[in-house]
Amino acid sequence: MGFELRERWSGQPLWARWVLAVYLIGFLEGSCVHILDVARDGIHAYASFPQVPLQVFFVSLAILDPLVAVLVGLVRREGVWLASAVMATDVFANWWGNRHWLQDDPARLVWLSPITFFGLFVVAFLLPLHRTVARTASSPQTAPAA
Hints:
Helix 2 packs across helix 3 (52-73) and helix 4 runs antiparallel to helix 6. The model has no long low-confidence stretch (mean pLDDT 90). This protein has helices at 2-10, 14-41, 52-73, 77-97, 99-104, 109-124, 126-138. By secondary structure, it is an all-alpha fold. The chain starts with a helix and ends in an 8-residue tail after the last helix. It has one domain (2-137).
């Protein structure tokens, strides 16, 4: 497993390794935030959002963010797709859930900037990263000498 994982990472072009590293950092940070929120406040961690579907989604990020981090760390195509789906939904949910506060205090846009920029980054690299990860995954792997 270790050799194969090293091969998967080293088989990526330099730009793809950097993008994967940024994905990992972002999703590990998100994992920590959502896990700590749920550990501290339980399933009511996001009760400030009046919409129950948003509350359920944000609680589910305590599972989805670590799953994305693992799949991206393993350089799996599924991780790239799941990362984009999670971030697109996460950005939409944050903007939708905070829309009434944004109307009252437009300065809250600053608070939404990091997640919005990270979401745009993840979605922007979806297709190029998927292509390079798929190309590497389909190339034959050489086994280590015994």
